[in-house]
Amino acid sequence: MRLKDKVIIVTGSTTGIGKAIAKAAISEGAKVLVHGLEEDLGLQAIQELGEENTVLHIEDISAAGCPEKLVELAIKTWGKIDAIVNNAAWVVNSDIGTTGKAFLGKVLEVNSIAPFLLIKSALPYLSVSKGVVLNIGSVNAWSGEPNLLAYSISKGALMTMTRNLGDVLPRTHSVRVNQINPGWVLTERERQHKKQDGLSENWYEEIPAMYAPSGRILWPSEIAAAAVYWLADESGPISGQVVDLEQHPLMGRNAPKDPSTIHGKP
Fold first, then answer.
1. Distance separating alpha carbons of residues 28 and 24, to the nearest angstrom
2. What are phi and psi of 24, to 5 degrees?
3. How far apart are CA 144 and CA 162, in angstroms?
């Protein structure tokens, strides 16, 4: 059991990638604080993951005092914290025309500032356990899609924070900080978002090879499998690293001449 008896806070874990990480962590012996926005989804997740392995907190991660509440609940329930996974994020469309100061500030609060505050709140306990921080970013951190401006900015900030704290905290607090940047992942909400954008019910079954050379996009369980490595002791002293999890290189790739083809066939 690679995470036996470890206590892990996973934000945004009632659905999608966060829920998959919580499930994988529990299967490896961990106890997980499950966090999200919707109580019904949270209660459902607790039932699926097992009440004996979890505790639930429902609140906007950017709400005043939420990071401190997560830390307090984990300590009250299990007496320690071994790792935190900053997964909660607001994925919202915007471009330069629709991104104002208040809107950008809100996206940064959820996607960049709240993760920082959770790290800061948990740091005294992570220092004791010589723990781990795993930030869940996005390949959009490198530049982003045209309609994901604010989101991309926030993930770029998260990536810089990971590299900065990943250099400092091992020396000052014996805490490692790393990040994984998922590419295109088939979460429940991604299915809904693309349908709202006008795509068909089964849009994910026929994706152009330019975007999915393998013929499909990533599954949450595949991101979770990678997360376990960074949360486990087997990743050793590695810190300050950002790993992209996508099925093609992000820069200098050889895209198909006809992006409408799938595996080279119209």
1. 6
2. -65, -40
3. 18
**Per-residue tens of pLDDT for the chain, all 266 residues:** 999 999 999 999 999 999 999 999 999 999 999 999 999 999 999 999 999 999 999 999 999 999 999 999 999 999 999 999 999 999 999 999 999 999 999 999 999 999 999 999 999 999 999 999 999 999 999 999 899 999 999 999 999 999 999 999 999 999 999 999 999 999 988 888 777 777 788 888 888 888 899 999 999 999 999 999 999 999 999 999 999 999 998 877 776 665 454 444 33
Helix (H, G, I), strand (E, B) or coil at 57: strand
Neighbouring CB atoms inside 10 A of 217's CB total 18
DSSP code, position 63: S
Total residues found in the chain within this entry: 266
Count of beta carbons in the 10 Å neighbourhood of residue 205: 9
Q: Minimal CA–CA distance to 155: which of 191, 106, 111?
A: 111
Domain assignments of the chain as residue spans, ordered by start: 7-183+220-245, 187-217
**In contact, 9 and 70? CB cutoff 8 Å:** yes
Cβ contact 184:214 at 8 Å: no
Residue 81: name the closest of 136, 23, 122 by CA. 122
> CATH assignment of 7-183+220-245, given 3.40.640.10, 3.40.50.720, 3.40.50.920, 3.20.20.370?
3.40.50.720
Contacts of 174 (CB under 8 A, 6+ apart): 127, 130
pTM of the model: 0.93
Cβ neighbours of residue 95 closer than 8 Å, sequence gap 6 or more: 146, 147, 149
